[in-house]
Amino acid sequence: MKKLVALFLGLLLNFTVSAQMVEPVTWTSSIEKISDTEYYLIFNATIEEDWHLYSQHNPDGASLPIEFTSDAKGKDFEFIGLADESETHTAYSEIWEKDEIYFEYEGTLRQKIKLLKSDVKSIEIEFSGQACKEACVPISATFIFDIPALDSPITAKSDTSTTKENDATIETPIETPTSNKGLLIIFGLAFLGGLTALLTPCVFPMIPMTVSFFTKQSKSKAAGIRNAIFYGLSIIVIYVGLGLSVSTIFGPAALNALSTNVWFNVIFFILLVTFALSFLGAFEITLPSSWGTKIDSQADRGGYVGIFFMALALAIVSFSCTGPIVGTLLVEAASGGGFIGPIVGMLGFSLALAIPFALFAAFPGWLNSLPKSGGWLNTVKVVLGFLELALAFKFLSNADLVLQLHWLERETFLAIWIAIFGALTLYLFGKIQLPHDSPLTGGISVGRLCLGLLSATLVVYMIPGLWGAPLKLISGFPPPAHYSESPYGVGFKKLGGGPGAHAKLPEGAHLGPHDIIAFTDYETGMAYARKVNKPALVDFTGHACVNCRKMEDYVWSQEKVLSVLNNDIVLISLYVDDKRKLPKDEQYISEHTGKKIRTIGNKWSEFQTINYKANAQPYYVLVDGNAKQLNAPSAYNTDVDSYYQWLMEGINNFK
After folding, report:
1. Which of 188, 348, 486, 645 is the most core-located residue (most Cβ within 10 A)?
2. Rounded mean pLDDT of the chain?
3. Any idea what DSSP says for residue 470?
4. Least confidently predicted of 322-336, 490-504, 604-618
5. In contact, 43 and 127? CB cutoff 8 Å
6. Is 77 exposed, middle or buried (0-12, 13-18, 19+ CB in 10 A)?
7. Collapsed DSSP state (helix, strand, coil) of residue 573
């Protein structure tokens, strides 16, 4: 527990610093010939001040050591032992309680290899490791080494390609007001999730049991309050530890990929459907009963140790209800908040869960004010099941969008949601009963009626969306309006179309959001901007980018902004998550990352990273016909006046 607390505090204190680092470790590499079959691969690391990169020999159970891997290992070549390392340092880590071995400021590794084939032209080496300041970030890199010719002299040395640094360390250098807002939203949603979990049939009945436990443990009122506070803190440590584990195991690069990676989204769709079916009563998701038995035996020890295990017992026993909520929150937090997202999410969830338990443990007399357990608890669980099912289709939609398959277009998505929330409405009105429901006697409650009316309102609100209504209240959840069977409304009767809806499109252009003429190829768009002598708005966006859709629906739709986008600029929308393959003759090895650029999204993502040192979306850059920036780039900003002023600043600078 001490380790978890120390790590958690370190991460909170240093998140701001680490998130703004460009890269803690940069690399150069070269290859040195020993003989016709043996070579040294040389890796030179430059490490930012106060950061440590950990040696291959760092002990197990501490910071992650350096590791080299390759798909060609054992086929084209083999490693001969571990790499020789330049000078390292050793220091005791209070977090891991071990001596750690690390590089500081700079480090060199020389890995000896032996070729197994004579016709090998190049080999690709994947590097992984960890760099720490007080917070830690995973580091990854790819090196491509060209094998010297057979007739080259012994000890011949040549530089190789540059490397791909850890994706998570490349962040937008522009200060935006939304990053903190994003984490606050994650915290708020997680807090609501914790309050909801409190009302499920696995958690709510635990409150009286907890009060009974503390009544027996505490010899005085002061001791009772002290024990209750420690109990609440234990709940927080357990769940925050879970969030920290998710962030550490997957790393920020993987977490940032959640929103656009096809397989992640498909897996989460299946996971959430499973959670939903569990909440609806098809089956229960439980942990092995032996776990609960072992934890319960530890809780009987008394003292602070017993209290901590009592908190752990709560987490395990209530898993069948809290597990789906926690899983959903972790998915949402990871895809929207990067490395710190799951930690903030679990902090919000655990606070909502811990505060009521701690208060009732400290003041047991409050128990008399609680409602009695009953069928209403299962109703809460079923409602959550319907919500989980609706959310699942958002992840399936993400996968469809990035592949541009058009299997789950806007109308289909809305039809599914109308069916789900329609069924929820019927359930709340008592027209549908599920396996674990208690019979309704004496009619439905006022609270249930209000929830039913709210659900029915949402259904009625969504129905016009099937014919092209914008549905701004749920913006970002359904696919965008242009990803539709009828992007201009049924019968092409959508009103308010921009000039593009009534004019011949320039070559290479299409109709974007709100019928704005848009280009999806940078060079084609820039050529048109030069032709019409207008500035270009380079819009780095994504098919599965929720904030991009919100900007388009809430900001671009405003009359004064839409007028500028239609008349005063040329819009170039570059989709960084487009998984469609580039033609073979356009695929290439990146000089910047050493990776092969295979897809359209790869191309525009690298373009953004190289030219603007940013990988966030949405990201807007105003440039003239020669690609010169007209003002500072802008990111996600739902303040219409501010965004309009930013547009006008760039246009005035162009003039």
Report:
1. 348
2. 76
3. -
4. 490-504
5. yes
6. buried
7. strand
Q: What is the end-to-end Cα distance of the chain in Å, rounded?
A: 61
| The one-letter amino acid at 175 | E
Domain boundaries along the sequence of the chain: 2-169, 183-372, 409-495, 497-654
Three-state SS for 106? Answer: strand
In the numeric block, the tokens 């070549």 are attached to 77
Can you give the pLDDT at residue 25?
85
pLDDT value for 376: 66
pTM: 0.47
Neighbours of 297 (CB within 10 A): 11
What three-state secondary structure class fits 319? Answer: helix
Write the CA distances from 521 to 81, 538, 601, 607, integer angstroms: 48, 10, 11, 12
Residue 75 C-alpha from the chain's centroid: 36
**Model pLDDT for residues 245-304, shown as the tens digit of each residue:** 766 665 544 444 555 667 777 887 888 888 788 878 887 766 555 655 555 555 555 566
489-504: average pLDDT? 51
Identify the residue whose tokens are 């969008």: 401
Is 497-654 in the same CATH topology as 2-169?
Answer: no
Q: Which two tokens stand for residue 631?
A: 């003002």
Which of 107-121, 324-338, 402-416 shows the lowest per-residue confidence on average (mean pLDDT)? Answer: 324-338
Q: Which residue has the higher pLDDT, 485 or 108?
A: 108
- Three state DSSP letters for 479-496: CCCCCCCCCCCHHHCCCC
* H-only helix segments in 281-318: 289-299, 303-317
Helix, strand, coil percentages (3-state) for the chain, rounded to 5, are 50, 15, 35
CATH number assigned to the domain covering 2-169: 2.60.40.1250
Tokens standing for residue 87: 């000078």
DSSP 552: I
- Give the C-alpha separation, 393 to 415, whole Å: 11
Instruction: State how far the Cα of 71 lies from the Cα of 80, in Å rounded to an integer.
Output: 16
pLDDT of 172 reads 32
Position 557 confidence tier, pLDDT thresholds 50, 70, 90: confident
Cα 72 to Cα 123, 149, 222, 268, 373: the distances in Å are 7, 19, 65, 32, 61
- Residue 550 φ/ψ region, left for φ over 0, alpha for ψ in the -120 to 50 degree band, beta for the rest: alpha
Asked if residues 393 and 410 have their Cβ atoms less than 8 Å apart, the reply is no
- In this structure, the number of other CB atoms found within 10 A of the CB of residue 28 comes to 16
The token pair that represents 566 in the structure block: 């239609």
The answer to whether residue 118 scores a pLDDT higher than 70 is yes
Structure token digits, residue 45: 């690391």
Q: Is beta strand 596-597 parallel, antiparallel or unpaired with respect to 52-54?
A: unpaired
Question: Please, which pLDDT band fits residue 128 given cuts at 50, 70 and 90?
Answer: confident
CATH among 3.40.50.1100, 3.40.30.10, 3.40.50.2000, 3.40.250.10 for 497-654: 3.40.30.10
